[in-house]
Design brief:
InterPro entries: RcpC_dom (IPR031571), SAF (IPR013974). This protein has about 210 residues and is α+β, with helices and mostly antiparallel strands. It is built from three helices and seven strands. The chain folds into three domains: about 35 residues; about 60 residues, Antifreeze-like/N-acetylneuraminic acid synthase C-terminal domain (Type Iii Antifreeze Protein Isoform Hplc 12), CATH 3.90.1210.10; about 100 residues.
Length: about 210
């Protein structure tokens, strides 16, 4: 066999041997590398979201968290579009049932019901947030034409201050004034609020935090 051919074959054998050795080292390092820690996909707010926001696909993204860091009540990403936030949410905050309008907002108030009411001055709602305590007053004209004000509900807890949404039932029913407020109230108080809303203008007074 010519000497030149022998030299070429020798060089090829060296290259193949080096490649095989490098592959063996890489495989060994891969086997020794620790497995990635377990994680769970969790839907979170893709940006800061206001109370009353009706969630769309672009409002939600998914991150992976260690199982021990996943909060209770996380809602599946596919179930979030169309749901309404009961309070503001920061970017990156996990989206749980306690952040959405629904039974979970009632929290420990087992005997309470979520009651929606419209207050005469929507500007008053700007200072309210979930957890605030309010008194609800009803103002109506008395027999002599003077205003009569009475307290309909005392120290009821605010659950949500939903933003107005196009096509909401309130707009369809002809409510062109007032802002929507959702509070937790016992059934008897909820009935009082409903009756007062039919005959009077409702206002709220906020208790100190």
């Amino acid at each position: 066999m010519p000497a030149d051919l022998l030299r070429v074959l020798a060089r090829h054998r060296l290259v193949l041997s080096a490649a095989a050795a490098a592959g063996a080292v890489a495989a060994a390092l891969g086997a020794l590398a620790p497995a990635p820690p377990p994680s769970t996909p969790v839907p979170v707010a893709a940006r800061d979201l206001p109370a009353g926001q009706r969630l769309a696909a672009g409002d939600v993204t998914t991150v992976r968290l260690p199982p021990g860091a996943v909060p209770d009540g996380v809602v599946g990403e596919g179930a979030l579009p169309g749901r309404v936030l009961g309070g503001p949410v920061r970017r990156g905050e996990p989206l749980t049932d306690a952040r959405l309008l629904g039974p979970a907002l009632l929290g420990p108030d087992a005997d309470a019901v979520a009651t929606a009411l419209r207050v005469a001055d929507p500007g008053a709602l700007a200072v309210l947030g979930p957890g605030d305590l309010v008194d609800v007053h009803a103002a109506a004209a008395g027999p002599d034409g003077t205003a009569v004000v009475r307290t309909v509900a005392a120290r009821v807890r605010v659950l949500a201050v939903p933003a107005a949404q196009p096509g909401d039932a309130g707009a369809a029913a002809g409510f062109d004034e007032g802002g929507l407020l959702v509070v937790a109230a016992r059934p008897a108080v909820a009935a009082e609020l409903a009756g007062a809303a039919a005959t009077a203008r409702l206002t709220v007074a906020v208790h100190g935090r």
